[in-house]
Q: What sequence folds into this?
């Protein structure tokens, strides 16, 4: 490629299938079935690519635009872990191009009318802990392939309507038959409205005559509105007693409840 005809082109693909393309060239480019727009939706700093197993990383910055990446979508987490590809392309002949980065969006921060997003390379998962964790509590996530519990089983989820909300606190109507605390450590899923598809982790679950009162660990990016439908999924504190009595799933318990405590390991040994 000739240096004077090289441009950069970015493609971002969300989990819901939406794909956006951007380029630093002054005209639109098209390849890979994507139209790359010459606007301020996205630009990038220098790509840092390490040899061996080090993590490739860079940073993307851009202006918030209704026609591209909106602030509401970022707040709602719809761009979290979006697939990212970066090409160097000859704008005079787009068939002459090379893919120089592939990864996904990491942490996103916002300030005023702009955003900044960390880009993480394909080797990022190598930083994650591998193998089993030996701990008295279960290492599986409720409903995953290790836990094997069927979350669709009767009694372990419920749906209701938002009656009140201020972000981290919601009051729902239409949910009955579950004692207080049943959904603590579980999930809240928004089924309708502008925030549909968002999920939150439940910190507090209270049952009262006024309705089901919930407190979330963190506020959802977009607040559900009165009348939106919500699904609650039962929570698990990963204790063996909970697995046995609440979920009847002790055969799949992935913890080690009979491990000696740390106090036993460091206690002085007395010869008898």
A:
């Amino acid at each position: 490629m000739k240096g004077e005809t090289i441009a950069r082109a970015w493609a971002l693909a969300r989990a819901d299938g939406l794909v956006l393309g951007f380029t630093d060239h002054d005209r639109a480019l098209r390849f890979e079935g994507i139209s790359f727009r010459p606007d301020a939706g996205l630009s990038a700093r220098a790509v840092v690519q390490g040899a061996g197993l080090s993590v490739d990383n860079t940073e993307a910055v851009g202006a918030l635009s209704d026609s591209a990446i909106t602030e509401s979508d970022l707040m709602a987490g719809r761009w979290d872990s979006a697939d990212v590809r970066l090409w160097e392309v000859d704008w005079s002949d787009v068939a002459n191009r090379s893919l120089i980065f592939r990864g996904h969006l990491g942490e996103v921060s916002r300030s005023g009318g702009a955003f900044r997003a960390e880009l993480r390379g394909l080797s990022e998962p190598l930083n994650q802990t591998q193998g089993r964790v030996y701990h008295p509590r279960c290492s599986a996530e409720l409903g995953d392939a290790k836990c094997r519990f069927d979350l669709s089983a009767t009694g372990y989820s419920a749906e209701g309507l938002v009656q009140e909300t201020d972000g981290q606190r919601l009051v729902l109507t239409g949910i009955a038959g579950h004692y207080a605390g049943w959904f603590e450590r579980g999930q809240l899923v928004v089924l309708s409205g502008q925030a549909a598809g968002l999920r939150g982790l439940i910190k507090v679950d209270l049952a009262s005559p006024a309705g089901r009162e919930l407190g979330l660990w963190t506020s959802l990016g977009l607040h559900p509105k009165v009348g939106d439908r919500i699904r609650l999924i039962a929570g698990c504190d990963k204790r063996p007693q909970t697995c046995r009595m609440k979920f009847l799933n002790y055969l799949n318990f992935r913890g080690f409840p009979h491990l000696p405590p740390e106090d036993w390991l460091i206690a002085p040994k007395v010869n008898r």
User: Anything to note?
Assistant: The longest helix spans residues 240-245. The chain has three helices and 15 strands. The domain at 157-233 is CATH 2.40.10.170 (Thrombin, subunit H). Confidence is low (pLDDT under 50) at residues 48-55.
